[in-house]
Amino acid sequence: MTARILTATLAAAALLAGPLAAPAAAQDSAAQTTARRTLDATAHGKTATGFLHFGTTYVGHRFVRSGQVTGKANHFYLEYQYDWRVGNAALDQTTLLYFFDDRGRLYGTRAGRTTAVLSQPFVVAQLSIRALGEVAYDAVQNDLTDSGRRLLRDLVDRADAQGLFELVTTVKLVNRR
Q1: What is the distance between the alpha carbons of residues 121 and 85, in angstroms, rounded to a whole number?
Q2: Residues 6 or more apart whose Cβ sits within 8 Å of residue 8
Q3: If you average pLDDT over residues 88-117, what whole number do you get?
Q4: Using an 8 Å Cβ cutoff, are 47 and 4 in contact?
Q5: Count of H helices and E strands in the chain?
Q6: Helix then strand then coil, % of the chain, to nearest 5
Q7: Using CA atoms, how far apart are residues 8 and 76, in angstroms rounded to an integer?
Q8: Are 169 and 162 in contact (CB under 8 A)?
């Protein structure tokens, strides 16, 4: 089985097994509108692409759909597609799902479909965090609360690119309100 077929199969299985309900079930709410204002911004698209596929070039992104999270009353997800490329190679795409509680607070993300063969979501960023994590920690530690420093220290120590992305996104969402 080729790497591309294996990747596509795993991505399809993850989406089918995920906690998503039909897109039509989600009602547009103030929380969704607020979240979309932040997630729709080009600056956020570049940040997301940098974490998803570190070292690639951001081409664009777009909102795909929203829906209710199965088994969680009033929780919703927003799905975005990110377009990116490596050098002059063909355009690649990755979808990312953002999960929110009933008050519009982000509590997780999950990479969905991707056309990437080698640059799987968050992997290269994770390797980079191992190399540059201490520099990043030192640069921002004085701007954080004690609990923020502990969380950041844990994310850097674990080289958790997805966790760091969720922290950055949460800060953007909170500051947007």
Answers
A1: 13
A2: 113
A3: 94
A4: no
A5: 6, 4
A6: 50, 25, 25
A7: 25
A8: no
Identify the pLDDT of residue 91. Answer: 94
- Inter-residue long-range contacts of 129-136, CB under 8 Å, 24+ positions, other chains counted: 129/156, 129/159, 129/160, 129/161, 129/164, 130/159, 133/157, 133/159
Report residue 3 as tokens: 């790497």
Which distant-in-sequence residues (6+ apart) come within 8 Å of 76 by Cβ? 26, 29, 31, 32, 66, 67, 68, 69, 99, 100
pTM assigned to the model: 0.74
**What is the mean pLDDT of the segment spanning 139-151?**
81
**Domains identified in the chain, total number:** 1
What does the pLDDT average to over 57-68?
Answer: 97
pLDDT tens string 3-35 = 333 333 333 333 333 444 444 334 468 899 999
Q: Using pLDDT thresholds of 50, 70 and 90, give the confidence band for residue 177.
A: low
* C-beta of residue 148 within 8 angstroms of C-beta of residue 167: no
Range of the domain at 58: 3-176
